[in-house]
Amino acid sequence: MIELLFLLLPVAAASGWWIGRRDAGPKGPVAPGAHPAFLRGLNFLLDEQPDKAIDVFLAISEVDGETVETHLALGSLYRRRGEADRAIRIHQNLIARNTLSAEQRGYALFELGQDYMRAGLLDRAEMLFEELAEIGLQRERALRGLLDIYQQERDWSRCLEIAERLKPFSEHPMNIEIAQYHCELAEEARRRTEPEAARHHLARAQDADPLCVRATLIAGEMALAQQDQEAALGLFLRVADQGARYLPEVLPGLMQALEDLGRGDLIEVLESLVSRHPSPPVLLALSDALEHARGTDAALAALTDYLAGHVDVAALERLLQLQSQQAEAARDGSDHRAHVVHEVVRYLLARQPAYQCDHCGFSARAVHWQCPSCKRWGTVQPVQPERIPGDEVVHERRLA
Q: Phi, psi at residue 363, to the nearest 5°?
């Protein structure tokens, strides 16, 4: 309710200011908000009756050049509250007036397009946004509205077209989005068994964004499927330079390529990756390989060395699992305690997100190339372990 109050107060203040101007008579200007209807609407707000407050403000806002902004604000408020039908009626009423300036008409048309999107009427919103983009009113916002529609419809070719049209107006380069659209088209080509088309889109993605990890990952998977393990291995290792945080995504393919090639340096490759780019899944793969090749003590030593410098619940859970197994085998009375501690840490690990959006904080258990929350591309990344600060840093923090 507090949030709603803050949204409505500017609208109420604007209405009161206009009423004060309209009702000013020979005795001088009337103070803003002195009109009884305005005060009644404000009382509804304070009594937590926003619907009645909105009705009052609508009744006292006459549609002319001075109150168009009030109606736009009210329509937007209705839409945010999920009342798209009421927002549509307000904005349609505004558009029907022949007294609007071109700028006001552009705002009203754009808001109506937003209403249609909220109501799920994407075809109507698309027509409005396209009209605005063509006549040059609210062009950037209309193009972004079209982009949103085509992303919802997964029409990646149209997304590419709109992204190119947005380039001259966008505050940030569209290279990341363009690369991701080409990756989506490459994935579709792979499903249709059209490798040449897929490679074409992957090359276009790399042209748009040379650091596009997803394009390299798809190319590596295609090379692995075509039994070109050398090329696949090179592509998977390239991810360490392009975007090391995505190493977990290439790890299965990388290990498969090493196995198919009959190489015996899996442990050395994983150790090199962990030393350069600490990552929980890579470390767990290393501990598994060490346990299989050199025994449990070797795996425990690697995990202990790593945890001495990193806060990593996944690595801790693996270490406790190995210790619990050793205690159970020794049957020295410590197996129950080790088991209890391991279960607690495993529970904590299950609650910890594996991926998180760097922009909005959305968390997930699997990678999303487009964040489901903020709709940005390439911002959902594997969660990285924190480094344990040195003693001097801890001492400074205690003093603070």
A: -115, 150
The residue count of the chain comes to 400
Interstrand relation of 380-382 and 355-357 (parallel, antiparallel or unpaired)? antiparallel
Total-model pTM = 0.77
CA 241 from chain center: how many Å? Answer: 23
Using CA atoms, how far residue 234 sits from 250, 254, 343, in Å, is 11, 9, 39
In sequence order, the 6+-apart residues with CB closer than 8 A to the CB of 353 are 363, 364, 365, 383
Cα–Cα distance for residue pair 267/272, rounded to 1 Å: 9
pLDDT tens digits, residue range 302-354?
Answer: 999 999 999 899 999 999 999 888 877 766 666 677 788 888 888 888 888 88
CA proximity to 93, closest of 64, 117, 120, 53:
64
- Residue 84: its H or E element: helix 84-95
Distance, in Å, from the CA atom of 15 to the CA atom of 8, rounded to the nearest integer, reads 11
Helices (H), 119-246: 122-135, 139-152, 156-166, 175-191, 195-208, 213-225, 229-242
Contact assessment for residue 394 and residue 258, using Cβ atoms and an 8 Å cutoff: no
Distance CA(120)–CA(79), nearest Å, equals 12
CA distance 318 to 302: 11
How far apart CA 355 and CA 368 sit, in angstroms, is 9
What are 251-277's pLDDT values in tens digits?
999 999 999 999 899 999 999 999 888
Report the C-alpha gap between 299 and 271 in whole angstroms.
Answer: 12
Contact between 218 and 197 (Cβ < 8 Å): no
Residue 34 CA: distances (Å) to CA of 26, 138, 260, 310, 339: 16, 36, 82, 63, 72
